[in-house]
Design brief:
The protein is of the alpha/beta class. About 30% of the residues lie in helices and about 20% in strands. Strands 1, 2, 3 and 4 form a four-stranded parallel beta sheet that branches. Bound molecules: flavin mononucleotide. Flavin mononucleotide (FMN) binds near residues 39, 40 and 96.
Length: about 120
């Protein structure tokens, strides 16, 4: 099966693909940048697995997304739903076509959210 079909099936089944690695010291981080592509209107389901694997209460999540034209779609509200105790900063949505040349946008965003 092609990646795009596997991704669609995972989305349709609301799957939680198993991750191969775990962050052992997540408690050491106050701020987490979550970077992912928009797949079928939201995060890849593996990112759902990631967000459900830790307690993000009291932490700050900074969403950075690439997309093919539809921006954040449902991803921000899905992050909020999975991490109700987290503070979600303003996100940055980059069109995949601009990913190689978006340094300035990333820098501006990092400054806006106080990470630079
Ligand atoms: C399985 C799959 C589903 C996608 N679904 C969407 C979508 O719903 N909305 C959208 O704007 N882009 C969608 N895209 C386009 C990706 O978001 C875009 O190609 C990606 O962010 C660019 O990063 P990449 O070069 O790593 O693929 C999809 C891409 C794939 C592979």
């Amino acid at each position: 099966m092609k990646k795009i079909e596997i991704a669609k099936q995972e989305y349709n089944e609301n799957a939680r693909p198993e991750l191969t690695e775990r962050v052992e010291n997540m408690e050491a981080y106050d701020t987490v940048i979550i970077a992912f592509p928009n797949w079928w209107t939201t995060m890849p389901m593996a990112v759902f697995t990631f967000l459900e694997s830790y307690d993000f209460s009291g932490k700050t999540i900074c969403p950075l997304i690439t997309h093919g034209g539809s921006g954040f779609s449902n991803s921000l509200k899905d992050i909020q739903r999975l991490c109700p105790g987290a503070r979600i900063t303003k996100g940055l949505a980059i069109n995949g076509d601009d990913a190689a040349t978006c340094d300035k946008d990333v820098e501006k965003w990092l400054k806006q959210i106080g990470l630079m």
